[in-house]
Amino acid sequence: MTRKYDAIIVGAGHNGLVCAAYLAKAGKKVLVLERRHLVGGAAVSEQIFPGFTFSSCSYVVSLLRPKIIRDLELTKHGLHILPLETTFNPYLDGTYLLRGVDAASTRREISKFSKRDAEVAPLFSQAMAELSRLIKPIIDSPAPDLGSLKPSNLFELLRMGRILKDAGDDWVAANLKMMTMSAADFLSEWFESEKLIAPMAASGIIGTFLGVRSPGTAYVLLHHYMGEIDGSFRAWGLPKGGTGSISNAIAASARALGVEIRTEAPVKHVLIKNGEAKGVVLENGDELHAAAVVSGADPHRTFLNLVGEKELEPDFVTQIKRFRMRGSSGKVNLALDRLPSFKCLPGAGLHLQGDITVAPGIDYLERAYDDAKYGDFSKKPFMNIVLPSVTDPDVAPPGKHVMSVFVQYAPYHLKEGPDAWPSKREAFGDAVCDVIEELAPGFKSSILHRHVLTPWDLEKTYGLTEGNIFHGELSVEQLAFLRPAAGWARYRTPVKKLWMCAAGTHPGGGIMGTPGALCASMMLSEGAA
Amino acid sequence: MPRPTPFHERLAKLNEAYAWKEWSGYYAACRYETNHIYEYTAFRRSAGLLDVSPLFKYEVRGPDAARFLAYVTVRDATKLKVDRVGYCCWCDERGKIIDDGTLTRLGDEHFLLTAAEPTWRWLSHLARGFDVKLDDVSDRIAVLALQGPKSRDVLKACVQGIDFETLTFFGSANGRLGAAPVRVSRTGYTGDLGYEIWCDNAHALPVFDAITEAGRAYALRVCGLDALDMTRVEAGFILLGVDYFSAPHCVRDERRSTPFEVGLGFTVQLGREPFMGSAALEAEKKAGPKWELVGLETDWEDLERLYDAYGLPPSLPGQASRVAVPVYLEGHRVGQATSHTWSPMLKRFISLATVRADVAKPGTELKVEHTVEYDRRAVKARVVQKPFYDPEHKRKP
Predict the structure, then answer these.
(1) Residue A150 above 50 pLDDT?
(2) A123, A141, B153, B347: least buried by Cβ within 10 Å?
(3) Is the residue at A77 inside a domain?
(4) In this complex, do B316 and A69 lie within 8 Å of one another by their Cβ atoms?
(5) Neighboring chain B residues of A70 at a CB cutoff of 8 Å
(6) In terms of domains, do A418 and A487 share one?
(7) pLDDT above 80 for B180
(8) Which of A238, A265, A292 is the C-terminal boundary of a domain?
(9) Residue A177 lies in a domain
(10) Is residue A447 domain-resident?
């Protein structure tokens, strides 16, 4: 049998494409196989309703590494990130907070609730930026393997240790607090106004099955700030044409580098002989061979479906099964006849151009979590809303709009079981629209089409196990050298010549591209492809 | 005191930033919101509307109009067809550039020339012996630039009498906007799909209202000069008084440039009847220019290293900068970078620079001065092709 490819990548999600592009850039012959009819995985733009382009799942970009943008010449291949400058928080009592127009107006806005907090806010941002800057090298390089005494690993540990040492005791203390505290408690050490704390804390629960009062959620806040560290050069914003345009740009770059991408080519399993990956078997029975196989699927899919338990050590299987997926969020995509008009700030304006966060109080958020804890979707959920068509006229017909609503909580494991989701889908969508209607009367009558994605849909359509948007929770015990399993955090797997390149590996989820890039660089440095 | 332009009444209401500057004696908006990034985005991704009325504008009429302009400018105006626009510049006897602008042929014997600086004296000085009539219409014609990929959709929705499918790049046509007669040319200073709309002052407000109304469905934004400055650097367009200087205003001869030295060599049409500066330009074309205007792209990794040494993340102004800084090769100054901007489109820090011709080849690695924490340092930069940003839709029919 002739070996045709240096590497086959399973799944054309953004990480799979990044990995493919970097391998091809190093001269490797790479094939990417995608189950669906389009590339992108969870970073896709789809016309679910004619004339309206939805970023079906992932909807903003913040962490896409600038180096990847440069290396893969993504701007040349169509990537353009539109500004998303403001954060608007409408409250149920008719008040609102609008941050991000400029420094002075942000201060004035916060002063409506706390004069003290208004002056603390920039100091907090500065502290977060500093933390992010120090953490950046850790995010941008592979996680060290604590169990290994290889010189390269020791060097990396040493480097990381030096980062911590140079940073000073205060920083270590702050970092420890971030790693262990709840978002609500951590923010309460800085701020006094709940009107500010609640929406800020909300970014600590995104994609986790935790509440704002759950320990460990402070760390996820930092992820939020990471995207902002690069100042005006940041990648934070709305991808022009939806998040699918990021995937399309990476795919175009990959193709230009010689990568072959096949869509509607679902992989049945990885072809393994004597504990070594030899290629893949497609659903249609075709066998494809390669020197290395890279999985862009999440750890559960990779090991429990594509590889199979029988090829793995029982201990490892247990670790993977313990790796928590448990999706907690859903998405409601809407085609609108007109812009919503909020009761607290009527009409159009800067507040509709940015991010709109519905997180009106700590108790509101915690109650939303309470529903989820016992297997129900939140009756009054946390929501993160954007209206991309305000800045990007191409995603909706002239004068019309698209609204993307990220909704939490929507637990995969309903008390009736996950398969009850299809029968609850519309009720979930109604709960979301009811809250928006309360904040923006008349909103419901502007809806032309509603597309509701529950965690069950995220699993069935987009291949995210249990609908987890990060390929596994971003909780502290599932990060760095523990992602996805102790000893296997460096993109390698117990199956020889099988690699992992997606969000289930360090440094995790979000449209970052780092797992894909780091996987490629590890493979290349070890001559694996 | 600057004067209001014919659009000022509307613009003043929109300018929440209260940010104005003086442009040729008029009030011109820098930006309408405190952050100009959405205006930039409109130019690049939807449609941006900019008041460019302060441009100097001269009408030239008469049997000798074409011959006269062919003599004044480096372009052979006799070859310019009616309803076409030509970008051009004009020089002194020594081939040193005085100004640049667009030349529109409105009729067989009728042209419109734009200029960045007052040019009446120069034109009338050279007009002796030509059967032409000059008319300074600077204060009588109001001009809007509508730039961006959606600009055509907006104009289609409000302009009558123009077939936008056949109005090609650098074409010009007469039409109507409601009751107002307008001339629309497919030109601009952003390097994107874009148009300029010319009308009498009297029609300015209704024209403005009709365009902004039609633009509502296309995310049109009224834009200021801050956003324009970023786009014009991305487009590689030079600016008089920033990237080069008008020859009569220069004290030192070193400051004067020829069209070849500022990247306007493509506008110079030689091999015809002598024109202002033609002998010198002929000679320079043979010998090659001493300087060239190039694009520079900062090496981001090097910039990060530079800032990292101070424990800082890279920091750049959010606006285009016109602070000239030296460009070095192996420690020796080989030119200067005169306009700079962070390009949100390209995610790169880019500059326009004039460098010695022998180091102007794309790919050449140079160093540009960069100040970090009061220290003047230098950062690596590579010579690259201009324009930095050149979308297909700019020229597409």
Answers:
(1) yes
(2) A123
(3) yes
(4) no
(5) 300, 347-348
(6) no
(7) yes
(8) A238
(9) yes
(10) yes
Residue A161, chain B, CB below 8 Å: the answer is no
- Averaged pLDDT score across all residues of chain B: 97
pLDDT of A170 higher than 80: no
**Domain identity same for A424 and A348:** yes
**Residue B78 Cα to chain centre, angstroms:** 24
Distance from CA of A257 to the nearest CA of B (A): 20
Residue of chain A minimizing CA distance to B154: A398
Sequence-separated contacts (24+) of A367-375 with Cβ below 8 Å: A368/A408, A368/A409, A369/A205, A369/A210, A369/A211, A369/A212, A369/A214, A369/A409, A370/A211, A371/A409, A372/A209, A372/A328, A372/A409, A372/A410, A372/A411, A374/A415, A375/A411, A375/A413, A375/A414, A375/A415, A375/A416
Residue A1: what pLDDT? 46
Whether A32 and A111 map to the same domain: the answer is: no
Same-domain pairing of A222 and A116: yes
- What is Dmax (Cα atoms) for chain B? 68
Q: Which of B34, B218, B300 minimises the CB distance to A70?
A: B300
B153 and A80 within 8 Å at the Cβ level: the answer is no
Beta strands in A200-347 (DSSP E): 238-239, 260-262, 267-273, 276-282, 287-295, 329-336
**Is residue A147 less than 8 Å (CB to CB) from chain B?**
no
Give yes or no: residues A439 and A333 share one domain: yes
Structure tokens at B29: 């908006």
Read off the DSSP letter of residue B171: B
Task: State how far the Cα of A194 lies from the Cα of A208, in Å rounded to an integer.
Answer: 21
| Cβ contact, residue pair A70, B347, below 8 Å | yes
Residues in chain B: 397
Distance from A158 to chain B by nearest Cα, in Å? Answer: 19
Q: What is the pLDDT of residues B314-350, one digit of tens each?
A: 888 889 999 999 999 999 999 999 999 999 999 999 9
**What is the CATH architecture assignment of B290-388?**
Beta Barrel (2.40)
> Who among A102, A235, A389 is closest to B34 (CB)?
A102
Cβ(B333)–Cβ(B326) below 8 Å? yes
- Give the right CATH number for B8-55+139-223 from 3.40.30.10, 1.10.10.60, 3.30.1360.120, 3.40.50.300: 3.30.1360.120
Report chain B residues whose CB lies below 8 A from the CB of A85. Answer: 35, 37-38
- The CATH number of whichever domain residue A509 belongs to comes to 3.50.50.60
Pairwise CB contact (< 8 Å): B216 & A399: yes
Which of A83, A231, A353 has its CB closest to that of B313? Answer: A231
- pLDDT per residue over B90-133, tens digit each? 999 999 999 999 999 999 999 999 999 999 999 999 999 999 99
pLDDT cut 90: percent of chain B above it: 96
Fold of B57-136: Alpha-Beta Plaits (3.30.70)
Q: What is the mean pLDDT of chain A?
A: 92
Which sequence spans correspond to the domains of chain B? 8-55+139-223, 57-136, 290-388
Residue type present at position A121: A
Q: Tens digits of per-residue pLDDT, A262-314?
A: 999 999 999 999 999 999 999 999 999 999 999 999 999 999 999 999 999 99
Q: Which of B41, B152, B389 to mutate to test the interface with A (most CBs of A within 10 A)?
A: B41
Check CB contact of A347 with chain B, cutoff 8 Å.
no
Do A233 and B46 count as a contact with CB atoms less than 8 A apart? Answer: no
- Which residues of A fall within a CB distance of 8 Å from B313? 129, 133, 229-231
Give the residue numbers spanning the domain of A170.
99-238
- Inform me whether the pLDDT recorded for B376 exceeds 70: yes
How many whole angstroms separate alpha carbon A312 and alpha carbon A310? Answer: 5
Same domain, A244 and A360: no
Inside any domain, residue A52:
no
Q: Which of A441, A465, A489 is the last residue of a domain?
A: A465
Top residue of A232, A338, A352 to mutate, by most chain B CBs within 10 Å, is A232
Q: Is the pLDDT at A228 greater than 60, yes or no?
A: no
Measure in Å the smallest separation between the Cα of A529 and chain B Cα atoms: 27
What is the number of H-type helices and E-type strands within chain B?
A: 9, 19
Total number of domains in chain A: 3
Least Cα separation, residue B220 to chain A (angstroms): 9
Q: Are residues A443 and A421 in the same domain?
A: yes
Same domain as A262, residue A169:
no
Query: What are the backbone dihedrals phi and psi of residue A87, each rounded to the nearest 5 degrees, phi first?
Result: -125, 125
